[in-house]
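Good morning,

Both structures are done.
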Amino acid sequence: MIRTVLSAAALAATAALPVSAQDGDASGDGDFTLAARADVMDRDGSQIGTVSLNTTASGVTLIIVALNGLPEGGHGIHIHETGDCSADDFTSAGGHVAGDAQHGIFVDGGPHPGDLPNAIVGADGNLNLEIFNPRLEIDEMIFDDDGAAFIVHADPDDYKSQPAGAAGDRIACGVFERG
């Protein structure tokens, strides 16, 4: 039931969002500030879009994902602990940004900071999504000594398997840079 609700929410969100992750918000009134941005590349080295991490007035991180050219279907999306996309299979990005939590929605009181809801990509290959993440601390988790990366996986996250949700191969990667 939870997976269905999250997937439906992600699908509904993708239909109404802009196709670029920029400073400001979808309504254009600029209620948040760009803190970090990642240009996301596929395994062929082609840029497929951007992901931005934004600081809101409340202090909660707003993640805006705007990608294209992805395979249709469900995909796990996560923030990984190392800002390195140099390996052909993107394993150089390490595991998820985890803090002190284990992977999964109902483990240790909630998901760890790198866990994001599954993204649903339509037949057009576009993924547009906005997500609030109160667990993600940009300065401590994204801009630590080894940085951080955004990863798109080939399959959906099962929200329970350790350590990464059995989401399959990494098919796209982007290193976060200061906004």
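Second structure follows.
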Amino acid sequence: MMHWHLIIIIILIICSHASTSTSANSGGRVEYLPGFQGPLPFYLETGYVGVDENEDVQLFYYFIRSESDPDHDPLMLWITGGPGCSSITGLLYEIGPIQFEAMHYNGSLPTLTLTPNSWTKMASIIFLDIPVGTGFSYARTKWASRSTDNLLSERAYEFMRKWFEGHPEFVSNPFYVGGDSYSGVPVPIITHLISDGNEAANLPYINLKGYVLGNPSTFSEESNYKIRFANGMGLISDELYKSLFHTCHGEYRSQYISASNIGCRQNLKLYEECIDGIFADHVLEPYCSDPMRLIKLPTQKLVDEYRPLSSSDCRVYRTHLVYYWILEASEALHTRKGTIKEWKRCSDLNFTKTVYDVRPYHQNLSKKGYRSLIYSGDHDMIIPHQSTQAWIRDLNYSVIDQWRSWKLNGQIAGYTESYSNMMTYATVKGGGHTAPEYKPEECVAMFKRWISNQPL
């Protein structure tokens, strides 16, 4: 009798472990999405991969196969910034194959349409919700819910190794890590971890080729370049710019300015008055009331406030259509009910910043010979293009293709420069934070040329 009890206990333990393992690394195809008419004309897969100790961190992803030649085209891991903004931002608003239709919101389910400017035309892309607590990613314990720049990067590396176990057909494809905004911090770290893992003979071997960064956060002093940007855009006068530089000595972050430096603080107050009402994501776009307030309004109130504004009048409102869509789409996306309290496009996280300067990572990756594409929307005041050019100069590599324009359809689309460390820098003329949202046609042309090893 005791033997039967023991056997039953063992069977229960095995079944429990098998169930845990299956749920920890699961994915399934999505053929239909609410708001899109008919079956999706591309391959979309969503799922979870368990990482960290006891797989207490469950990371959610959206995977889209290349629409050209998925057997041979590059594969890219894409991480949206924040930290804490869901990768659905990249999928629906920046580089993915579908987007919300630009129309007045009428209270109905937002409509999805195909976009001709998807990066998935020439690459397979994994859009990952990371760090934990972002989008549909969740933690099973309170301890696992914490995150830092280093933890984020280590979990992303573990995610990729486990994802490849379930998708071995992609192991030999050229692999890139990509992201924008705050992802300028973790992307070089993740790339470095993969490189080190390959050198340590970790399996599976990842065919790492390089990384892609748009409007990237890189070092803590970059915010000082906002003053220079504002002057260049005519938002502040030359006289105020010179006075700011003279009184503040090039350091404009309040925590580093002495309380006794009255002149600097007065000039900064004048600067803040000048840019009050400027939309920092794109200085030419209209400044709109806080869209986060709108998602808390009753539907009819939202309709009343949104109706006078088209997506071109107030682009930022369109980014919040996803809140009304996701309520209908979560089941189609194979998400796990009850694992998160409330879905947010950008979440408040239990996150601690631990890395303040990733220039050393860029330097090390350059020495190892990895390719990189760094681009800036030139109307972005959050991460000004001047700060990005500054840290690239700090790497001190020689120029092999001097500053010049790059064109699309016979028109200047931006400016570019290439360096001996296989790094290409490009501005996107008229782009904001981030560039593909504002200039999708130019950005897909830029990416296609670069990923194909062609000059911009």
